[in-house]
Amino acid sequence: MKWYEKDGELGDIAVSTRVRLARNLKDYPFPGRMSQQQENEVLHSVSSYLISSAGGTTFRFLELKNLDRITIGSLVERHLISPELAGKNGGGVVLSGDDSVSIMINEEDHLRIQSILSGLRLGQCLETVNRLDDLLDGNFKYAWSDQLGYLTHCPTNLGTGLRASLMLHLPAHTETGEIRRLLPNLGKLGFTVRGLYGEGTKASGSLYQLSNQMTLGLSEQEAIERLDEVVRSTIEREKNLRNVMMEKNPIFLEDRIWRAYGILSNARRISSGEAMKLISDIRMGVSIGILKDISISELNKLICNIQTNCIISAAGKPLTDVERDTERAELIRQALKPTN
Amino acid sequence: MKWYEKDGELGDIAVSTRVRLARNLKDYPFPGRMSQQQENEVLHSVSSYLISSAGGTTFRFLELKNLDRITIGSLVERHLISPELAGKNGGGVVLSGDDSVSIMINEEDHLRIQSILSGLRLGQCLETVNRLDDLLDGNFKYAWSDQLGYLTHCPTNLGTGLRASLMLHLPAHTETGEIRRLLPNLGKLGFTVRGLYGEGTKASGSLYQLSNQMTLGLSEQEAIERLDEVVRSTIEREKNLRNVMMEKNPIFLEDRIWRAYGILSNARRISSGEAMKLISDIRMGVSIGILKDISISELNKLICNIQTNCIISAAGKPLTDVERDTERAELIRQALKPTN
Fold first, then answer.
1. The domain containing residue A121 runs over which residues?
2. Does B245 touch chain A (CB under 8 A)?
3. A269:B258 CB<8 A
4. What distance in Å separates the CA atoms of residue A220 and residue A163, rounded to the nearest whole number?
């Protein structure tokens, strides 16, 4: 079972929590300046060590240079590697069986230790990355400065090297235009809001990534607590906005949600953009109790599986655009079948 | 059971057949020039005679001046009276129980004897109006000229006073643009094509009224036969166009039809225009075998029942626009329920 198939706290609005640590090895130059031999040394020493010392967790190791374009694309779509690592031949990733742990090697930093879980679970994610951090720290020498903390390629990561982010589903913020007020407000508080696939990407299906921007001057624990607080108040606000929408014009909202359900459970081909938009409506419908018998985890799984590369990867063969859209529609119909 | 709840030949494309005769009484001026007393005389003598002499048929008589705006509107929507009669206080209509026979009194002519049936049934409609024509001819003196035949208010009806028309469902003609070629071609052959509610109205849901234009120089039988021939070839062409669409891009067509079904069976409010468009898609889906368990007669009934005045009339109370659209969506969902 993958992480997104499990339920999490406030999971109807908090789609997923991710925490990652940026770490670099003291004895090597930053990834951009390493020789190929050095890249290989880091890649294999870190992955071997993780696989042999992980205890209960079963890890698998993927080297970017051995992967085809589609597999790489599907790893990006499932947030297991960053778009940046996707372009790096000398990179690799160590993944847990349920995809909840991913350690990228030779991305912008030597190590990006990530934990991802469904719902709002910052504490649990932090615990996981800290455990892995300790494990690696016991065997490798990290680049560290007493003054700056962990040294990273990009100064925005200096200090704790921590970035924590929440994927939030905010359809009522989007619908009411409230999102345009939320974004600058969160900016002032030191948080960043981005689209589904990180920096520079657009919000799809009213999904927004809210993350902490400050790694200096705050302890990991403090950074996490502040994010948790902001997330909870954003979720509260989203719920209020939904109630207002529902009180103001219940038929409008019900109609929109049922139509989304009607289209998704009947369409024979559908683009990723339209599907994301309609799944967003359905997700809200489940959350406010209009749609029964559909689980949030089923929808989370769907959001992963209907992305372009995931579909092609699952098909195991090249697909034309129409075939892909047909396959996507089929996946969605299966997922929404009443027996599910 | 109303006429539109019964199946008719080629009913998946030929929605309904209408035949009407225009007749005037020799001893009265044309309706526009009658005194109120004369209007009343015609109204009551004709309706009383019909009701008492109709044999097996049970007729009911409605006087326009006694009807409210909504009831009148719903009669127009069900093609039982013309938009023209709707505005005439001195008019009336005699209707059979299944609404398949309607005799308008004091419309443009003293009498408009109409028979309407589902499917392509020109012969049967002609037989019905001829029988009623004979019945009335036995009791009243028609305005008649040896040279011109039956005298009518409008010269286009002179002669046989016959107009026969078919309501055809031509989505493939519409989709492929072929309709723009069909229209002038039919015009050259002496036929007229109009929208759902006659002259000057737009085609809604790909429904077109094809009717004969010539009443002089052709016998009733000849006029009917020519129309039958043209209708059959138009239906054949429509079937071919559907096959071409299906061969060319089956997924496109299937997707459109299933989406229409998904929206109609889930929407919580819907305008008349959107509903007509989507019912058109479903109708084609039933016709080409993509949708099962939906009957054409159920769709015919729906086309009648979802018209604005019919909905308000059925509700028995004034409705806001939103209530009307909600009621329409409800009617459609009920009709499309799998048990139906």
1. 3-238
2. no
3. no
4. 9
